[in-house]
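Re: folding output
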Amino acid sequence: MASSQLLQRHKSLASPARSPQAHAALLRPVVSRHAPFTAATWNNAPATRISDRLWGRRAELSRLVLVRAEQLDDGRTPGHPYPWEEDFDLLSDKVKEVTDELTKDLRGCNIWLIGMMGSGKSTVGKMLSNTLKYAFFDTDSVIELAHDKKPVSQIFAEEGQEYFRNCESQIIKELSPYRNLVIATGGGAVLRPENWGYMHLGIVCWLNGDVDLLARRVVRDGLEKRPLLAAASAADGGGAEGGGALGVARDKLAALQEQRRRYYENADVVVTLEGYGKDAEAGAPTAAVMYRLLSAINEKVQAKKREQAQRMNFTIEGAEQLKNMRTMESPAAAAAAAAAAQGEGEGPAPTA
């Protein structure tokens, strides 16, 4: 099936529009926001004696519940540089705020996500598309659908990497003319200059993660799903100097990132995946990465808007004299007209 047909199918199955409040609500976890409570020991306070008189033997089943909010541990990290990343209610409000400002100036511009495998391009891209009311495409998934849902690893094995990259470039080419899209690309899509020509029609965003973080993620998902890592693991025998699968993934990802870094640096926006506090090992939560991405895109768009406004803010020196200026006749044209008039006045020479 051609990728353009897949695009039409995707558009026909688009979900109904949601309000900005509904999109912000997607970030709120379904948990109770009430403060936890602790049960205090029984005492002989006056309130207890009153309870005895009123309820008799039922008072033996009651307990005094005290809420000491100042002593509660809410799970947040003290000194967190971005405290809203651990408070989803606050984070959702900030997402709505930046989204309301961004959508006025984004004007349907496509957003392309690039980065290494394990950087979460697909996961972040889906959440971003829901928030912006955009359609989402993953180039790997489109290629799989076009090949009867064969996994990427099988396409690599049967057709080779060059064939896969050609398919990827074709998908990028066909998606680029459309608007209101979030597109997650493969990690190696940045290696071809023609892909950049299409992606730079929109905003290119690099999800930049540390090699150790990326290695932990891809090992958790399984190396067999990553053709380049699976080949490296088979060649190494799973050893990697005693590090096992994690060592193989770390070594291969470090080499790939070093090779691709100069291409990734051509992105319009760079967003770090670094986590803080309790998220230091797993990386920043998806919603937090999306907010960082929205903020970075908004800063880029607003900077471009200010630049365009600055270009239009110019003055013409001596403009106050324009309304007093008259059209001056060209001296050369005046001389030519005088010569022509003199020639007409003399007329033809008389004959004898």
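--- second protein (sequence, then structure) ---
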Amino acid sequence: MRTRSSSNLVGESSPNPTTSNPKRRNRRRSKQPFSLEESPVDTMADQRTMAELLRAPTEGYAEAIVVPPILAEHFELKHSLINMMTSDQFFGLEKDNPHDHIRWFNKITSIIKYKDVPNLAIKLMLFPFSLAGAALHWLEKEPPHSILTWEDLVSKFINELFPPSRTTNLRNEISNFQQRFDESFHEAWDRYKNLLRACPHHGFTELHQLDTFYNSLNSADQDSLNSAAGGNLLERCTQDVLMIIENKSKVRNSRNKSNISQVKSSDVNSSSSSEIAKLTHAVNQFLMDLPSDTSSNY
């Protein structure tokens, strides 16, 4: 019986020194000194002290509104213009309407004229002075150089301070408008126009507006409009319907004024008649109380 030689046993059992011994595979590394990696910014600013580097930055204060170049020499905003803007500032309160503020601002700035100065530049320069409170805080939060035109400024201003919920509420008020029980025709028409004015982006056509208002009136005012139209008001074109409504509102106002004057006149007349009657009664009573011989002398 043949046996394995010792050499064979040793050869089979001896492991490969390069693969079987993990301790030999992980060689010992030399320790490297710890150092901070410098960014390009740190490298450029390495001449400054730590106190200087930790100071608050002074950049990033650029205005959101970009005013176009002005060719006029020695141009500056007068204090009177700035005072005009600050006299009626928009605060952005819940009751404030940004549409009304834009109308007012356009009206004021439309009359300001400077040679070689575009009206757009005047608007963009003056508008921040017309804001205060929450409205001014909104403008200060806008990114620098993000407003380049007047149209862009108006769009961002309206969208920020006239939220969609407000638009929805006003649209519902317009659609569901009804003349009140104690409300005259001209009062209802004025209130309806104020609602339309408060939400100029309501989206309702002129046809829809006039039809809504006509159907909101009581039967007496509807009959009056039909009579003025010579038939059914809704069979007339929108321009005619609007003119008839406006004319009726003006006539109603004048009649109310004349009625008030007549009432005041009648009150004066009745008051005078009452005073005359009282005086006549007093004189008659005086004559009746006189002695008979005295009365015969008269």
